[in-house]
Design goal:
The chain contains seven helices and 14 strands. α3 (120-141) links the parallel β7 and β8. It has helices spanning 11-25, 44-49, 120-141, 164-167, 175-186, 192-196, 228-231, and strands at 2-7, 29-33, 52-57, 65-70, 75-79, 92-99, 102-110, 145-151, 190-191, 205-206, 218-219, 222-226, 234-239, 255-259. The strands form three sheets. A six-stranded mixed β-sheet has the order 3-4-2-1-14-13. A six-stranded mixed β-sheet has the order 5-6-7-8-12-9. α3 packs parallel to α5. By secondary structure, it is an alpha+beta fold. The protein binds one DNA strand through residues 9-10, 12-14, 34, 36-37, 60-62, 113-115, 153, 167, 170-172, 205, 207-212, 219, 221, 248, 250-251.
Length: 265
DNA sequence: ATGCCTAAGCCCCTTAGA
């Protein structure tokens, strides 16, 4: 089964691309970020007509995450991360879905960008990271199949960017950001794309500016983290990068994993 | 050193993104 994370950068502006993707690839589960819509203004009918059940954690203007599942309604498990009651950003939505190999937990994650750095936005990013790590620890303890999918706004390795120099001062590549990501992985999570692409990349994001896409100046910031029972089922991982080159594209491309249908012994 | 481009709110400029 195919599980996708896709930062759409506005679900209303991206609806033709998203519907096209659902029709062409028929992914089983899709985690969306930056829907930039409230629960009321999201194009729910079109998604449902495409054959997908969906739950949303929306917000007016920016942020917003969703979980879509083909032929079923995801069951909401958690909406927003605990630990900072005054945080009103919609960046986390966790759900349970059914698979032929049993239940699967998926989370759609939109981690704060953190620029400019230093400053309150960078501090917020690091605090949010710790709150995510607390939740991730609880999920691992359940010992089920879990996928933490989303836009982490972290370039984990130097080989995950077209230019270390261009990004050196960016919040996406700071030691604190990488350290938080590495500590999360050290809990026992598998970075699916990194495992399948040890030499670096593939890119998941190309800036709209500076002619980045034609020059392939991208980096890898959208990640799917797998609990051990999920990692045991990993059979492939990649980026559907041609969607980045289509008309009215998001600056991110859909990033996916393939999980085997049966549990390995 | 700066802006490069895009979406959305609000209404044609500002905020935010990465």
């Amino acid at each position: 089964m195919k599980i996708v994370t896709y930062n759409v950068n506005g679900i209303k502006a991206r609806l033709p691309r998203l519907l096209e993707y659902l029709a062409e690839e028929r992914p089983d589960v899709v985690c969306l970020q930056e829907i930039k819509s409230t629960d009321e203004t999201v194009p729910a009918a079109e998604i449902r007509e495409a054959g997908y059940g969906a739950i949303w954690h929306g917000q007016k203007g920016f942020n917003g995450v969703a979980v879509l599942a083909r032929g079923q309604d995801p069951v909401e498990r958690l909406r927003g991360l605990p630990g900072e009651p005054e945080d009103d950003h919609s960046r986390y939505l966790e759900a349970a879905v059914e698979t032929p190999a049993g239940p699967l937990t998926v989370a759609s994650i939109y981690l704060p960008n953190g620029n400019p750095r230093p400053g309150p936005k960078f501090d917020y990013k690091l605090r949010w990271f710790e709150r995510l790590a607390d939740r991730a620890r609880d999920l691992l303890a359940e010992e089920g199949a879990t996928v933490l999918a989303g836009d982490y706004n972290v370039i984990p390795r130097d080989a995950d960017t077209f230019s270390v120099r261009a990004m050196a001062q960016d919040a996406l590549m700071q030691p604190e950001s990488r350290g938080a990501y590495r500590r999360l992985l050290a809990q026992g999570w598998t970075d699916a794309l990194a495992t399948r692409h040890p030499a670096g990349g593939p890119w998941t994001f190309w800036d709209y500016q500076a002619n980045s896409w034609p020059q392939d100046h991208g980096f890898r910031i959208d990640h799917l983290l797998l609990s051990p029972p999920a990692a045991d089922r990993l059979t492939g991982a990649g980026v559907d990068r041609d969607y980045r080159g289509r008309e009215k594209a998001s600056d991110h491309a859909p990033t996916w994993i393939e999980l085997g249908m049966t549990l390995s012994s």
